[in-house]
Amino acid sequence: MKATPPADPDEAVASQDHPGLARSAGLIGLATMTSRVLGLARDQVLAYFFGAGNDMDAFLIAFRIPNLLRDLFAEGAMSAAFIPTFTRQLALHGKPHAWRLGNNLLTAVLVTTVPVMLLGMLFAGPIVRMYAHGYAQVPGKLELTIRLTRIMFPFLTLVALAAAVMGMLNALQRFFVPALSTAMFNIAMIGCAFMLVPLMPALGLPRVTAIAIGTIIGGVGQLAVQWPVLRHEGFRYHPHFDTTDPDLRQIGALMAPSIIGLGAVQVNLFVNSILATGQGTGAVSWLNYAFRLMYLPIGLFGVSIATAAIPAISTHAAREDSASLRRAISRGLRLMLMLNVPATFGLVALAGPIVALIFERGSFTTDDTMATGSALVFYAPGLIGYSVVKLASPAFYALRDSRTPTVVSVLTMILNIVLNVALVRTMGYRGLALGTAIAALFNAGVLLWRLETRLGGLEGARTMIALGKIAIASTIMALVAWGVDRVLHALIPGTGTATLAIQVGSAIGAGLVALAACAHVLRIDEFVEVRQSIGIRFWGA
User: Fold this and answer.
1) pLDDT band at residue 526, thresholds of 50, 70 and 90?
2) 2 pairs with which residues across the strands?
């Protein structure tokens, strides 16, 4: 690749990437935060209505099955392969050629996912029995899971179309509405919980059926909210399916190895589902609630930074500008560490209080809080791994290399299965959380190693120094937050929502002040950049 050094090597990427990475990530983060807050509210509603009982266990496995295939389309192989190709068309040939590719891809999505959806609905019974044969031990639980799976399988096609539209908008530097689109999914599920759950028994249906219906309505909403923005950019959909199109073939070629990687993920989730369903009623739900809390910072920070960085990374790769590509990836990585390392330490320090504040009401008991908090502690380290992968894996696709992330994915799957099978025997469902976290860190580490080798470096010394400083600041932040929570727990005893909100809010606030102070003393540049991008000023102007 041709290296084209910019005038100011240290800061060039900030001027070349328009809008700037931190600014774009901040905009995406704002929209994503709205969606994630609604997602948190959705989880609270589900916990209130269903707790961690058989209905919620059944829903989670039923939703997991079509959602496995979603990984191929939403934040997986299709998006990673499509966005660089679409961006290249925009950069080199303009919108007309890009629109043609977009039409071709949307039609290809329909042609491929609709048959899969119909087959999934037809063979829901055997599929569910493979994933959750342990449910057969509870009367009616397996049958309920099969019914819910049939209802939710169309979500696959809806979310695949929404992901394709999101990819086009991101390539056009339109980030806010696509990031906000998942809010429609959460709103639909919350609305159905309150409006339809009470009606289901009168119709002779289990109450949790309302949540499955909400899933489909939410999928429609994700697509509907983005479509007007794409039309405003000039796109018009015309059914077009040309298998000889070299760009579509390139997307397919990039996806092909990742389909193998997806198969690895499916095997991994298949094994984990069997292990989790064998841990008794509640284990699947505890792990899901904990994973959702762990994934919240990933959605706010990891996905936001990666989404903002991918178009710039794709453009530098298309122009064969190695120097700018290295800086863009390195800068995105440091920003990601600045946000997610403190989040990891914070989740470990305040796991129990956070779970109690968010979920402990209605059908969600104190025992559920303890079990979910325990799982969250072991999941938390995986936050860093998952976030880094969101940036590193698409970088390989921008370099037209889908083989490397696929091979690493298969290796990660093997490691995850070995760890989970071993750890579940000694730690129960908590071992599944720890094994998953270790595997995520392994995945991120190997991808970064291969990326650094491929590009001749990723400013490793600068990144390691930044990581060391961030780790020190995060440790102090976590200790302060934990200490404040313990003191307030002794001074203001009680488990009411208001009391917990004061305790957790004060602990988080004290932790953030400590983090800001440490960042100032240690001169962590990435903290200043993040602070400015989200409009929060802890120190001076």
Assistant:
1) confident
2) 321
